[in-house]
């Protein structure tokens, strides 16, 4: 997620269903879960076939993932950097 988001940052998102990738997430930074249960924060792009998605790393040196099947994806709506997060 670096350099856009750092460890300890809080990302806020909302989703309309437990198993959906709405068309309005395409092209945006999203929190998503693949069919294997792995969570990602990536830019979601349309894949080469319906139901497949390219996950583009926010880190220029990070690995992109091509033609992934996702359970769900939701746009990041708000980001609080770690310095604004107070742990109790």
TrEMBL record:
Domain of life: Bacteria
Official protein name in the record: Transcriptional regulator
Taxonomic path: Bacteria, Pseudomonadati, Pseudomonadota, Alphaproteobacteria, Rhodobacterales
């Amino acid at each position: 997620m670096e350099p856009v988001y750092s460890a300890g940052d809080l990302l806020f998102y909302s989703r309309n269903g437990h198993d959906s990738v709405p068309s309005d997430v395409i092209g945006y930074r999203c929190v998503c879960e693949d069919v294997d249960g792995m969570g990602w924060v990536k830019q979601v792009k349309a894949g080469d076939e319906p139901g497949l998605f390219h996950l583009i790393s926010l880190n220029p040196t990070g690995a992109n993932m091509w033609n992934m099947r996702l359970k769900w994806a939701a746009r990041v709506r708000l980001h609080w950097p770690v310095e604004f997060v107070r742990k109790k």
